[in-house]
């Protein structure tokens, strides 16, 4: 069945008149491993929020899920249904070890009631120098799951490869389309190594990052995967790298649960649509995936995955190489950035209806992320069965104890104003809440 919202999510999208390349030049952070690259063109707005929330009906009776009930995902026990979505804190030092600030953040999240913590990709699970666990850092990294477990909180290591979003050059060249078979085999090995290390370190699961335009997301996307060999073309071919990782991980790290974060739509011409995401979710379910987190968008498109009410120009310039320019030039750039950068609407609950489509078609637990802020909305999402869990990113930055707070009647919503400064900071420095000011 196709809902109105699904049609919205699946609608084609036009490019703005301004060239993306120019904006990438203008605002590119060019930082290796940038979390997000502000954009100029993309498509949208994709309306998956307000109308969707109105259309959700409570399942009623025993089927109605509640935010603060204890549940299990496989053998993992969660004390509630509110999960910290992966947020890169830049919490790893130059030798690849977790910093004290990262340990303190996990402590705060666990004490603050998070149902589970998904680690940021660059906090131990990124497949480039220093960001993927190294054996010599094993003892230091062991402290990460240990601290979460001591405080009764499951912790899942996110594993990612930046793919074309590694740098401006790889972005231009479309990274995955130029990989040889041997390169792809090497990347599969890296993922399997990361999964095995996550198991040995004592994480409860590993989450494959298959969203936001990073490597696995690019392989899955019909718009970004231009390969004509066994790794591209038909859906089964585009899915092959994920299938290989899961199959080989099952041999190396037997029984270790795998989660995935995937795009239900990506706002690209000819790109991922919810109907195809449903097919992928079914394939993942057949392979025994333990949980699917539903997201959207491509980081290089700017504020589509992480949405903002206004373009955070000041933060874009401050956390890019343009910060070194003379003050008057920076001023001009700050003023002109909102003219070229693109943001997407709605700001809240933007993946809920896409998650509902996936939920309706698979039995695997579905986690939905993206602009979820209010306890009333969380109750509606869960009670309607649109998802089994919700996850939040920014609310846990500004209030690591957001779950404990939401439990109290007087705190009905996150204090996050969605300014987006934290995501820009993630390109350059330790992540914290800036609350719209530098
Ligand atoms: C500072 C920052 C870092 C992020 N790092 C990651 C990451 O490492 N992996 C990932 O899958 N998503 C990452 N995200 C996206 C979030 O997990 C989440 O999907 C997105 O922020 C939407 O949720 P929110 O509106 O609750 O923040 C990051 C978001 C922010 C703000
Ligand atoms: S900087 Fe703070 S207020 Fe702004 S989006 Fe991030 S968490 Fe929310």
Your description of this structure?
The protein has helices at 4-10, 20-27, 50-55, 100-111, 138-150, 168-173, 181-201, 215-220, 235-238, 240-252, 274-286, 313-318, 327-340, 352-359, 375-384, 395-398, 402-407, 421-425, and strands at residues 71-73, 76-78, 82-87, 117-119, 155-159, 205-210, 258-265, 291-296, 366-368, 389-392. The radius of gyration is 20 Å and the shape is globular. The protein has 438 residues and is α/β, with parallel strands linked by helices. The strands form two sheets. Strands 3-4-5-6-7-8-9-10 form an eight-stranded parallel β-barrel, surrounded by six helices. Bound molecules: flavin mononucleotide and iron/sulfur cluster.
Structure keywords:
438 residues; alpha/beta; TIM Barrel; 18 helices; binds flavin mononucleotide; binds iron/sulfur cluster
């Amino acid at each position: 069945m196709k809902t109105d919202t699904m049609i919205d999510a699946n609608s084609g999208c036009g490019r703005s008149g301004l060239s993306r390349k120019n904006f990438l030049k203008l605002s590119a952070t060019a930082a290796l491993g940038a979390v997000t690259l502000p954009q100029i063109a993309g498509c949208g707005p994709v309306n998956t929020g307000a109308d969707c929330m109105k259309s959700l009906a409570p399942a009623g009776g025993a089927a109605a899920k509640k935010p603060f009930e204890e549940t299990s995902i496989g053998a993992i026990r969660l004390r509630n249904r509110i999960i910290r979505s992966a947020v890169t804190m830049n919490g790893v030092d130059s030798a690849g070890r977790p910093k004290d600030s990262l340990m303190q953040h996990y402590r705060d999240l666990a004490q603050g009631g998070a149902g589970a913590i998904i680690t940021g990709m660059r906090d131990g699970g990124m497949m480039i120098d220093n960001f993927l666990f190294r054996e010599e850092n094993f003892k230091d990294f062991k402290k990460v799951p240990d601290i979460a477990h001591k405080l009764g909180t499951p912790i899942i290591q996110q594993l990612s490869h930046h793919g074309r979003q590694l740098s401006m050059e790889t972005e231009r060249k479309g990274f995955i389309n130029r990989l040889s078979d041997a390169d792809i085999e090497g990347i599969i090995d890296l993922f399997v190594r990361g999964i095995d290390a996550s198991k040995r370190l004592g994480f409860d699961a590993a989450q494959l990052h298959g969203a936001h335009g990073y490597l696995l997301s690019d392989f899955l996307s019909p718009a970004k995967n231009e390969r004509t060999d066994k790794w591209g073309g038909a859906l089964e071919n585009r899915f092959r790298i994920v299938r290989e990782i899961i199959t080989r991980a099952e041999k190396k790290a037997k029984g270790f649960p795998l989660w995935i974060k995937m795009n239900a739509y990506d706002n690209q011409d000819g790109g991922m649509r919810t109907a195809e995401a449903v097919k992928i979710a079914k394939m993942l379910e057949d392979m025994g995936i333990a949980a699917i987190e539903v997201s959207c968008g491509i980081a290089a498109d700017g504020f589509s995955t992480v949405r903002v009410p206004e373009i955070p120009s000041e933060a874009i310039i401050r956390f890019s190489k343009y910060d070194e320019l003379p003050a008057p030039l920076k001023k001009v750039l700050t003023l002109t950035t909102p003219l070229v950068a693109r943001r997407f609407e709605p700001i809240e609950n933007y993946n809920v209806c896409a998650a509902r489509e996936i939920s309706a078609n698979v039995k695997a637990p579905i986690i939905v992320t993206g602009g979820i802020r209010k306890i009333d909305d969380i109750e509606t999402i869960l009670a309607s069965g649109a998802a089994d869990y919700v996850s939040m990113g920014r609310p846990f930055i500004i209030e690591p104890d957001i779950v404990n707070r939401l439990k109290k009647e007087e705190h009905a919503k996150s204090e996050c104003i969605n300014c987006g400064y934290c995501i820009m900071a993630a390109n350059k420095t330790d992540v914290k809440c800036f609350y719209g000011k530098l």
